[in-house]
Design goal:
The complex is a heterotrimer of chains A (228), B (241) and C (230). The radius of gyration of chain A is 18 Å and the shape is globular. Chain A is built from nine helices and no strands. Helices cover 85% and strands 0% of the residues of chain A. With 241 residues, chain B is of the alpha/beta class. Chain B has two domains: 1-75 and 157-241, Rossmann fold (3-Layer(aba) Sandwich), CATH 3.40.50.300; 82-155, no CATH class. In chain B, the strands form two sheets. Chain B has a six-stranded mixed beta sheet with strand order 6-7-8-3-9-10, sandwiched between helices. Chain B has a four-stranded antiparallel beta sheet with strand order 2-1-4-5, covered by helices on one side. Chain C is an all-alpha fold. Chain C is flat. The chains are: A mainly alpha (228), B alpha/beta (241), C mainly alpha (230). Chains in contact: A-B, A-C, B-C. The A-C interface holds A 148, 151-152, 155-161, 164-165, 168-169, 172-173, 175-176, 179-180, 183, 198, 201-202, 205, 208-209, 212, 216, 220, 223-224, 226-228 and C 70-71, 122, 125-126, 129, 132-133, 136-144, 146-148, 150-152, 154-155, 158-159, 161-163, 165-166, 169.
Chain lengths: 228, 241, 230
């Protein structure tokens, strides 16, 4: 168990170190997430104040779009010098590899949140009273999204169209996350007692989704990354 | 499992769709022996190395590691004994040579003497001056030296080297031959593919010629008796028959 | 290598049965009593429900076969998964086309974010992606697609639950009524006919895959013996 945790930590630390040296991935992703919010504000803000329904949607769609850009790039980086193969050849367990990749994606998407939330506050007048509930939704939503993206990102192999395939594979499967995220956020922002109960219900749903996605990911990672 | 002392491939077949890369290859690698795998481009050498490294699953046939099928062994313990040097460098361009080796060392569970091991290997492959530069700035030959260091880092018992001499200068070639000879004395199992017969001949205990996915000729040599002429004869003898 | 006789008796039987069913069903459907509020358009239901059922059957067949392929490496399971996925896309399309036609009359709109509608649509999209991944996934595309099918099979119930929570927060339209006894023969004949048709198509598709596998094997053999060198 201790060895397992150490393997995950070594892999994750490597991803962070590479990113600290290169830097292009995180800056591009953060800039892109700001641009996405800006585009949404051009599309939705025409003088009248935005409804909270729109704000909730922009938060989650922006997160999903910017997250995907970063995820694509992070797996592309592992393929540049074929280092993904070196990881698969090393004695680390597949589960450790999967979890490290998943946690890396979580870190990236947390960074995206740090841009998108203030931008929404500025442009969409987002004002949150129940920050705890919202952060809970975001944390569980990001975990669910990352659990799916890490599995498919790592198993894309050498497909010619992998940058096209990844969003096609990940978005339909993460519809429950998007739905729970947007509706839960809407309920939090709405702020009545009844709607907060709804938000708590979405939170519980996300827990179930995350557990299912993680189990599937751990179970399928080994056979899906095996080479033909 | 400790001390892998024999690797045997039995009737290994590998199809890629309509391309049959290997058609029933059998071979045996023994401890302290080096086997040279000869053959043209596209003969199936890299595929064979991938299968022996447990990276690629054969369509048919099996590989026995110390008499056990790969599936019956603990995968982590098995992989810890394999070192594969392939065409790609498989190191992170944004990290320095030292950071790359340190990372792979940790992946292979080296802890106690990791820093010394990394430092001595860097010294050994002649990268001491460039050890802290990003790998992205390395020349082809330097990359090859780094890839070699990464392959030898965890002292694998089974060494699979795909064209290890490409990109190396004269000093590099001498160094590599010396390192491989050391590994052989240590009792490692070596499988080397190369086109440069002069360079590999002194190392060769067993030579296999792969053509279109089949082993069409083979020869064994007593230590130090193999010459480039013998290897060249092996290649042409088959072509005539 | 033995050469199988084709078409086999099983296939002929399946094809005959589905042809007979397809000829009988329209008469039964016309003879069935008209639904009081929706009238004639309700009869689309006899196509819609069987299509939806087969899309589901295909999806779960594909999921199960994909598991066998991923964990046992069974080539035949991979053929079954591929054929079942194609049928899911086909029957899913039938469901998605007939649904809105009926909805236009019943609800006044083509599309409602109804639980079953939304889930079926997403299921359909997942299986279109499955075929896409197989075709363009390159080496390892089959594993990728199989993983998608398995993950999708686990995901569909979650999609269903999430959409239904979403919809219960909003006003809900209930249209499901118990089946009039007079409609039963038409309905069950339709169900049976479609299922037999599904099996016939699956059988045909598997025959094609088997033939293709034999062809590939022969090609490789010919390559081995040097027949294709010139």
């Amino acid at each position: 168990m201790e060895a397992f945790v150490r393997q995950v930590a070594v892999l994750l630390a490597k991803d962070v170190l590479v990113e600290l040296r290169a830097g292009e991935l995180i800056y591009a992703t953060l800039l892109f997430s700001a641009i996405v919010v800006l585009l949404f504000s051009f599309a939705f803000l025409g003088g009248s104040p935005p409804t909270i329904e729109v704000t909730a949607g922009v938060l989650w769609v922006g997160l999903a779009l910017a997250g995907m850009l970063g995820i694509s790039r992070s797996f592309e980086r592992e393929r540049e010098a074929d280092t993904l193969r070196a990881l698969l050849l090393s004695p680390v367990s597949r589960a450790a590899l999967y979890l490290a990749k998943m946690l890396g994606i979580c870190l990236l998407m947390i960074a995206v949140c740090c841009v998108v939330l203030p931008a929404l506050g500025l442009l969409f007048g987002l004002h949150i009273e129940r920050i705890g509930l919202l952060l809970g939704l975001l944390a569980l939503g990001i975990l669910g999204f990352a659990a799916v993206a890490a599995l498919f990102g790592a198993s894309l192999g050498r497909a010619r169209v992998r940058e096209l395939l990844l969003p096609l594979l990940v978005y339909p499967l993460t519809v429950p996350v998007l739905l729970a995220g947007t509706r839960g956020t809407y309920a939090v922002l709405y702020g009545t007692e009844q709607s907060l109960l709804d938000a708590a219900r979405w939170l519980r749903f996300l827990l179930v989704f995350d557990a299912t996605a993680l189990l599937c990911g751990l179970w399928l990672f080994e056979p899906m990354t095996a080479q033909e | 499992m400790s001390g892998l002392d024999e690797v045997e491939a039995q009737g290994v077949v590998k199809d890629y769709g309509r391309q049959r890369a290997l058609c029933g290859v059998s071979l045996r690698l023994a401890a302290g022996q080096s086997t040279v795998l000869l053959g043209d481009n596209g003969a199936g050498k890299s595929t064979l190395l991938g299968i022996l490294a447990t990276l690629v699953r054969p369509t048919r046939g099996r590989v026995l590691f110390g008499g056990h099928a790969a599936e019956s062994l603990e995968p982590g313990a098995l992989r810890a004994q394999i070192g594969l040097l392939s065409h790609e460098v498989r190191c992170y361009g944004d990290l320095s040579a030292r950071e790359n080796l340190r990372f792979f060392g940790r992946l292979y569970g080296l802890r106690a003497a990791l820093e010394e091991r990394v430092a001595s290997l860097i010294e050994r492959v002649g990268l001491a001056a460039a050890a802290d530069r990003p790998v992205r700035t390395f020349s082809r030959g330097m990359l090859q030296r780094l890839a070699l260091a990464r392959t030898l880092l965890h002292r694998p018992r089974l060494l699979l080297l795909d064209e290890p001499y490409t990109g190396l200068d004269r000093d590099g070639v001498t160094l590599l031959s010396h390192l491989l000879d050391e590994e052989r004395r240590r009792g490692a199992l070596l499988l080397i593919t190369s086109h440069d017969l002069d360079v590999v001949a002194p190392l060769c205990d067993q030579a296999l010629l792969l053509r279109r996915g089949r082993i069409v000729a083979s020869a064994r040599f007593a230590p130090g008796t193999c010459t480039a002429t013998e290897l060249a004869r092996l290649c042409t003898a088959e072509a005539e028959s | 290598m033995s050469v199988r006789r084709w078409p086999t008796t099983g296939l002929l039987l399946l094809l005959g049965l589905s042809a007979a069913g397809l000829m009988t069903a329209p008469h039964l459907i016309l003879a069935a009593p008209a639904e009081s509020t929706m009238g004639f358009v309700q009869r689309i239901f006899y196509f819609h429900v069987p299509s939806a059922w087969l899309a589901m059957l295909g999806a779960f067949t594909c999921g199960g076969a994909s598991a066998l392929f991923l964990f046992r490496g069974s080539e035949r399971a991979d053929h079954i998964a591929h054929a079942a996925a194609e049928l899911t896309v086909l029957f899913g399309l039938c469901t998605i086309v007939t649904g809105p036609l009926w909805a236009r009359k019943a609800w006044g709109v083509f599309w409602q974010w109804d639980v079953r509608l939304t889930t079926t649509l997403l299921l359909w999209i997942i299986f279109v992606t499955y075929l896409f991944a197989r075709r363009y996934g390159g080496p390892g595309g089959r594993q990728l697609a199989a993983g998608l099918a398995l993950f999708g099979a686990a995901d569909v119930p979650l999609i269903y639950v999430s959409v239904s929570i979403w919809r219960t927060i909003h006003p809900k339209t209930t249209v499901v009524s118990t089946l009039d006894p007079g409609m039963r023969p038409a309905f069950w004949v339709s169900m049976l006919t479609f299922t037999v048709l599904f099996l016939a198509l699956l059988h045909l598709r598997l025959g094609l895959e088997a033939a293709r596998a034999r062809y590939e094997a022969l090609y490789l053999e010919a390559q081995d013996t040097g027949l294709l060198d010139e």
